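Title: Comparing notes on inverse folding

I've been comparing how different people in this forum approach sequence design from structure. To keep things fair, I'm posting one structure and asking everyone to reply with a full sequence. Here's the target:
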């Protein structure tokens, strides 16, 4: 038995023990529909030569998140040499920590995880390091010591926030409103998530240069449509003269637009309220094309191929970078039509 197979056998034994102890056949949390889509199944002897990857996903709060999960599941297939253990943490950090511990006890070859918030990971990452399992961060960042993880693959969310503000600068100039008072509200994502923190910091750093840009309020809509709508309704009750909504993902934007329309106002090009959104999922790009969303700053969920490549390099003993930033675009009415057909999510 070689080293990897010995490790595999020990992992398999740990897994069987866990099943016996918990009386539970599914120690990982694959939603049935996801399992069917990806052909995910239980460990068998035949899986002997595969690289085992434990992936802890935050949840399924947004269309973007589902696209991100699909991207990982498409990239890490048996045909390509991987056995993927998928865990959906359902928006709870404690579930992610539990999943990572379970990956450690199963002695997976790699742990991939998308941290719900930046803080609170030191202890479990120390445990992974002690077990000698490389950790790859996907999408969001952690504020832990960089020696506790191997690499990170994700978007530059500060730049996304800056791009949103830069677009607003240009738009106000075009409308000859650059000297007007501009009232802005921000619908934030999950507080403490690197995508929320980055987008907020990026936007605010540029907004601070303009004495006539007034950020009236920032509240979290948790990256969901329902919460986005609820917070937007509160904003509308409190502030009768909102000019711009900066909504940190498309799902919240859908809720915000509903709230604005129910209040008898219009959004987008020529509308009462300018809408700046993030993610650029197909349904939102259709609203950009229809002129209801003014600009959509892309956040690229297709991270699976990048991660697979990093694992391949690590398997080959090659050095990897500490950070891999995914490519992203900005969509407005002017360019969106050429991209809509190719958008799959
Ligand atoms: O971390 C990326 C963000 O998380 C996306 O913008 C959002 O849609 C998702 O839920």
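Reply #1:
Here's my take.
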């Amino acid at each position: 038995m070689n080293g990897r197979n010995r490790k595999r056998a020990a992992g398999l034994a740990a897994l069987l023990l866990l099943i016996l102890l918990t009386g539970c056949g599914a120690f990982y949390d694959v939603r049935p529909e996801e399992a069917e889509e990806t052909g995910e199944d239980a460990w068998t002897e035949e899986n002997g030569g595969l690289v085992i990857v434990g992936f802890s996903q935050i949840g399924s709060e947004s269309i973007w998140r589902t696209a991100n999960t699909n991207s990982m599941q498409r990239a890490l297939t048996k045909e390509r040499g991987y056995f993927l253990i998928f865990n959906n943490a359902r928006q709870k950090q404690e579930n992610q920590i539990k999943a990572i511990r379970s990956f450690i006890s199963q002695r997976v070859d790699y742990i991939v995880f998308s941290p719900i918030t930046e803080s609170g990971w030191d202890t479990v990452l120390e445990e992974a390091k002690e077990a000698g399992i490389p950790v790859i961060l996907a999408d969001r960042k952690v504020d832990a010591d960089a020696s506790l993880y191997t690499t990170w693959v994700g978007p530059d969310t500060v730049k996304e926030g800056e791009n949103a503000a830069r677009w607003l600068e240009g738009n106000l100039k075009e409308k000859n409103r650059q000297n007007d008072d501009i009232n802005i509200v921000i619908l934030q994502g999950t507080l403490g998530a690197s995508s929320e923190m980055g987008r907020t910091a990026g936007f605010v750093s540029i907004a601070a240069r303009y004495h006539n840009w007034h950020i009236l309020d920032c509240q979290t809509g948790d990256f969901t449509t329902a919460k986005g709508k609820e917070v937007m309704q509160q904003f509308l009750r409190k502030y009768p003269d909102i000019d711009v909504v900066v909504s940190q993902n498309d799902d919240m934007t859908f809720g915000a637009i509903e709230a604005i329309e129910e209040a008898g106002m219009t959004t987008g090009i020529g509308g009462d309220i300018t809408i700046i959104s993030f993610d650029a999922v197909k349904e939102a790009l259709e609203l950009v094309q229809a002129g209801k969303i003014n600009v959509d700053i892309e956040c690229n969920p297709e991270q699976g191929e990048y991660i697979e490549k990093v694992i391949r390099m690590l398997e080959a003993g090659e050095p990897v970078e500490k950070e891999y930033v995914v490519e992203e675009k900005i969509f407005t009415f002017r360019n969106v039509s050429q991209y809509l057909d190719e958008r799959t999510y």
